[in-house]
Specification:
This protein is an alpha/beta fold. It contains 10 helices and 8 strands. It has an 8-stranded mixed β-sheet, sandwiched between helices. Helix 3 packs across helix 6 and helix 9 packs antiparallel against helix 10. The protein is elongated. The chain starts with a strand and ends in a 5-residue tail after the last strand. The relative contact order is 0.14.
Amino acid sequence: MDRLAIVVPCYNEEEMLPLTTKELTDVLSDLITKQKIAPDSYILYVDDGSKDSTWELISKFHKEEKMVYGLKLAGNVGHQNALTAGMLNAMEHADIMISIDADLQDDTAVMEEMVDKFHEGKDIVYGVRNDRKKDSFFKRTTAQMFYKVMAAFGVKTVYNHADYRLMSKRALREFSKYQEINLYLRGVMPLIGYETDCVYYERKERVAGESKYPLKKMLALAWNGITSFSVKPIDFITALGGFLIFLCVIAAVYALVSYCNGRTVPGWTSLILSIWFLGGMQLVAIGMIGQYIGKIYIEVKHRPRYNVETYLNHENE
């Protein structure tokens, strides 16, 4: 039987951890009883530099429960990097990995279906929300716009999929070859290839704690996803610049004809507006290009994405 690791990135999740541990251990126990996974399967909590008692709780559960492992990172490196740390650790110690957030909003009941699809030969199984009825109108609309923009920019993504997924060991090994610092996992996964499938579920409400992804972080993640996988924003700026030059040529011809016909009118307002508009567009273009140059600057340093401070496991005890 294959050993399963459930990877759970955590940041200030002291309120959720007791509930999460209870639910995930029940899921593992059920799958072990049904002989679908190995008896030494486990939960791997990744503490992303939490400021509350998250790590103390992980250490406590590790002592009390053989199924609980812990990975403490040396500082806060962000959700995507913390999840990557857990995935790469699981690659070394498990045959299957399922990633899920600690808030339990993703339905753990479909984990069995994920494992079944793995046994059918699927290397990556995506957990996909079947609807967004529980989201606010703003969040639902912006999410739909985001997926459409990503598709328009040529970025492959799975609609309504976040970071709830199963991956086989060989899929994790392929993922480990992607060394970029500016990580957007939802865009990387479709690039791996291999056979994939989806399971569908209804997303639940958070029962404790607060969301770690406010609007600011969601927008930052979306922007990182676009600029990490597509140069089309620069193409768009280039095309817009060409269009503005074309309009300027037409305006110049019109001004010349008006001058020859003696119909010139002082145009201070239009002149100032044109200067401000073109100046603004230049700043936007420079800023857009600067974003890409900044990413290159960060990538070429080849700094580690995370540093592991402590690893708790039961293998050598």
